[in-house]
Structure formats: structure tokens, C-alpha cells
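Protocol step 4 of 5: obtain the predicted structure for the target chain.
Materials: sequence only (see below). No template structures provided, no constraints applied. The aim of this step is simply to have a reference model before the mutagenesis design in step 5. Sequence pasted as it appears in the construct record:
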Amino acid sequence: MGLIVLAACCSVLVSVLLKVLKSKGFEPLQLIVWNYVSASLLCFLWFQPDIAHLSVQHTPWWLIIVLAMALPSVFLLLAKSLQHAGIVKTELAQRLSVVLSLLAAFFIFHEAMSTFKVLGMGLGLIAVALIVMSKTEHVSVNHRKAWSGLVGVWAGYALIDILLKYTSSLGLKLPMTLNLVFILAFVFSFVYVYVFAKQNMQIKNVLGGLLLGGFNFANIALYVQAHVLLKDSPAIVFAGMNLLVVVFGVLSGMIIFKERTDWKAVLGLILGVLGILCLAKAM
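Step 4 output (C-alpha cells):
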């Protein structure tokens, strides 16, 4: 259980750090670029993927490239949502992206549906609608940017999850996929930020990005390790991770950023938690 707690802490720390650094004048785009340097290095050292036996011919490069472009794009949407919608609603939207993933699993991968899955997805969809419509104090009052950021995070993380599942169905293992995606995400985002956007490289953004990438990868590694150690209890890992992230997100939003939400967000939070419990029950 300790691994799940640490993974949840790292997940929320990524959001907290991104929000704090943005408020301190750091450039989110540059943070995203350099985050993939430390993430790819740590991924290689931790998982030790067998790159020597990588089949260039049989690797689904189009899928890797799509993922490599999707990751930094969703990260940028995360920064936008944190700024305009707040950390409480952003973390809940990110966690409820599992609803779209399950819908895709049903329609695309033909997974079986159960009563608890349907109930969990229904509660999740209502929860997302409520948090998108709700208002949060002490964050930007630009509601259009807030709801577009939330919907982007919700749909974006679901898309990444779906693409990763599809990649694994083609035979490419997760460590190899992550390493290739992180490396290409760095290349694509570097070219975009420093060549096309012509931003000036700043050492503070490089260091901040490397730190961000450390927490970003730690979240992934600890979550995967928890699934390995508790391979007979995937529901515990799934429910524990998602619920702890929501709880830590709420606490950090209220304590660190002084966010206050209306009744719609509170009801959405409750329904979201119930939805996660139903989905865990279905596993």
C-alpha cells in the first residue's frame, strides 16, 4: 500500500509543481520539454528495456509518433487546466478519464460490460459534467479556458491510455514503449519550442523541467510496481491510486492554493469517488 501512496503523492506533486512554477514565471512549454529528458533516462535505468533487440521493422512507429505528440500536448492542457480550473477539478477530471478508456475498451477492444462498469461510467460522466459547470474561487475567472482545459485533460489522458493499450496489443512491451515515446516527445517538443516558437532557453526552466520529469516518472514506476506486487488484487491498486490522487488533490487545492468550490464541484467529487469505487468493484 505504501507504493500506492507514494505514486499518488508523485502524481499530485507533478500538478502542484507545475502550477507553482508557472506562478513563479517559469515557462510551461520549456518545463514540458526538459521533463522528458529525466523521464526517459529514469525509464531506461528503472525498467531496463531490451533496446538491443528492438525490431525496427515490426515496431508500430506511427503509433509511437502519435503518442509522442499527444503526451506533451496533454501536459500543456494540464498546465492550462491547473491555471484556469484549479487543481481540485483538474485531478478529478484526470482520474475520470478512465470512463472514456472503458467506453473505448467496450466499442474498440470488445471488452465485456458489467453492471458495476455501467454504473461507474454513468456516475463518472455525470461527475465530469458537474465539475465542468462548477465554479472555483481563487483561480482564473476565464470559464471558457477552464472548461476547455478540463475537457482536454479528461479526453487527452483517455486517448493516451487507449493508445498504450493498443500498443501493448500489438506486442510492444510497456517499458520499451515508454522509453521510445519519452525520447521522441523530447525531440518533437524541443523542435517546436526552440525552433518554431523560437523561445530562448533558460537554465531555470531546464532544471525545473528535469525535476518535474523525475516526479512524473516516479508516479508511473511506483504505480506499475504496485501492480506487479499486488498482481492478484488489481482493483485495490486501481481504486487506491485514483481515490488517493483525488483526496490529495483536494487537500492540496484547499490548503496550498486556497481553492473553494461550489456545490456542483462537491457533488461531482462525491459522484466521481463513487464511480471509481464501482469501477474497482467491476475489476
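Step 4 remarks: The chain has eleven helices and two strands. Residues 71 and 262 are 31 Å apart (CA to CA).
Proceed to step 5.
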